[in-house]
Amino acid sequence: VRLAVAGAFHTSFMEPAVSRLEAALLSTDIRTPRIPVISNVNAQPHTDPDTIKKILARQVRLVILVSIQLNYSKT
Q: Where do the structural domains in the chain lie, given as residue ranges?
């Protein structure tokens, strides 16, 4: 299904943005969340701030698992 979007998000065309986002996240303070962050990259809960940073950067380039993530969140 073709979607009218502003960019090639979640594709290999976003690879250059991953390293830039990783660099920006290095100087960002992310604290351990009280509620786990459900990743849309692997649809799993995460509480480790370093892992959350890595996943945030990866989601720019990878296919996201929204339906699985939402199903996990319902449980």
A: 12-74
Contact 14, 63 (CB under 8 A): no
What is the DSSP code string of 7-59?
S-TTSGGGHHHHHHHHHHHHTS--PPPSS-EE-TTT--EE--HHHHHHHHHHT
Which residues in the chain show pLDDT less than 70?
Answer: 1, 64-75
Instruction: Identify whether the C-beta of residue 46 lies closer than 8 Å to the C-beta of residue 36.
Output: yes
In angstroms, how far is the first alpha carbon of the chain from the final one? Answer: 29
- What's residue 38's pLDDT? 87
Residue-level length of the chain: 75
> At how many degrees (to 10) do helices 15-26 and 49-58 cross?
160
